[in-house]
Automatic annotation (TrEMBL):
Signal peptide: 1-20
Protein name per the record: AhpC/TSA family protein
Presence of the UniProt keyword Signal in the record: yes
Gene source species: Pedobacter hiemivivus
Taxonomic lineage of the native organism: Bacteria, Pseudomonadati, Bacteroidota, Sphingobacteriia, Sphingobacteriales
Keywords in alphabetical order: Cytochrome c-type biogenesis, Disulfide bond, Redox-active center, Signal
Residues annotated as domain Thioredoxin: 238-376
Length: 376
């Protein structure tokens, strides 16, 4: 076979053949699990799709094997073969770990949640990070539960709320410090890219996000998570300060609205939804800014991420929002939200009369002053 024939054969190979086929083997010992138990594995297969497998526990042992790609979060659950009527609803016995190619050992007595899972560098990294943060996260969870109970009480105890908030701040700061410490000391870890995706991407400001992205190695950026992270970062850069922006969307009257039709004005483009409590809390401040600055060439365009027209328009009427409102009623699948990677609200950006973004995420009681500073 000549070289051209070989190249031709390679080019027509199915994509699945070229996909990484990272084999894994899991051997488990559950010494006191008893009979009639099964271990369920939830993981990502070699194509990055959700997959499941199971193995019956026999003589306190089980084995699982398969293929994956890169290293991804996986879950092992211990479940009864027969329906357990004594188990409370929502109660489950599972353990989270990182699965990649190689051999894994699972050791426990009668509960998966207390199992020791070893194997693979990503799992070592995960255990390292967990050891450094688990106590802090448990403490912060307790604080959060206490705060929720007080904050949503029929009669709010403002003193207790402030006390708990004061307690939470240093704990949260320590968690963030531990998170950043791990991220910047493990740039080649699949755990790191997950931590960044889970904790640093709700609202991406390219300027502050860049240090997290640029330290990541090509290896982890090639992963399924890495590819999604790169795509999201690229979208966020489209709405960074200094970028020109335009879009067309249907307004609340059913007409096509084009952002560039407002050239010559300062425009605050605001992503919100009727169900978003923080968004609704900002509306009185935006109304104040709109009332004070409209005569000076200021406008607001609200982009609703609602899915029902009634909920959207009822909120507009209830909150007294007189500015331009647009939506295609697709929630976070709204065309504009998808294009610019909007995955959390509220978010907004201010564009100048030339259609250039000059500020982002202006909020709070002094939002009128923040906006007025740009309008000469």
């Amino acid at each position: 076979m000549n070289i051209k024939t070989i190249i031709g054969a390679l080019l027509i190979l199915p994509a699945s053949f070229c996909m990484a086929q990272d084999k894994f083997e899991i051997a488990g010992k559950l010494s006191k699990a008893g009979a009639d138990k099964m271990v369920m594995l939830s993981y990502k297969n070699s194509e990055g799709k959700d997959a499941k497998d199971s193995a019956v526990v026999k003589n306190g042992k089980f084995a699982l094997s398969g293929t994956t790609a890169f290293a991804n979060k996986a879950y092992l659950s211990l479940v009864p073969l027969k329906k357990d009527t004594t188990r409370k609803r929502g109660q489950s016995d599972y353990k989270e770990f990182y699965l990649e190619k190689g051999k894994y050992q699972v050791v426990a007595a009668d509960s998966m949640v207390n199992a020791s899972i070893t194997g693979g560098q990503a799992q070592k990294d995960f255990l390292d990070y967990t050891a450094k943060t688990s106590a802090l996260l448990t403490y912060f969870k307790d604080i959060t539960q206490r705060f929720t109970k007080v904050y949503y009480a029929k009669v709010k105890d403002t003193v207790a709320i402030k006390t708990i908030q004061a307690e939470a701040r240093p704990v949260h700061a320590k968690i963030e410090a531990a998170l950043d410490s791990f991220i910047f000391s493990h740039p080649d870890s699949y755990v790191t890219i997950d931590l960044i995706s889970e904790n640093k991407t709700a609202v991406i400001d390219p300027t502050t996000f860049e240090p997290y992205y640029k330290i990541l190695s090509p290896k982890v950026l090639a992963s399924f998570t890495g590819q999604r992270l790169t795509a999201k970062y690229d979208k966020a850069k489209q709405i960074s300060i200094g970028k020109a922006i335009d879009f067309t969307q249907t307004d609340d009257k059913g007409n096509a609205f084009k952002l560039s039709s407002l050239r010559g004005k300062y425009v605050l483009v605001d992503f919100w939804a009727s169900w978003c409590v923080p968004c609704r809390a900002e509306n009185p401040h935006l109304l104040k800014a709109y009332t004070q600055l409209k005569s000076k060439g200021f406008e607001i365009v609200g982009i609703s991420l609602d899915e029902t027209k009634a909920a959207w328009l009822n909120a507009v009427k209830h909150d007294g929002m007189p500015w331009i409102q647009v939506s295609d009623l697709k929630g976070f699948n709204t065309e504009i939200a998808v294009k610019y990677g909007i995955s959390a609200i509220p978010q907004n950006f201010l564009i100048n009369p030339e259609g250039i973004i000059v500020a982002k995420n202006l909020r709070g009681e002094d939002v009128d002053q923040k906006i007025a500073a740009f309008i000469k």
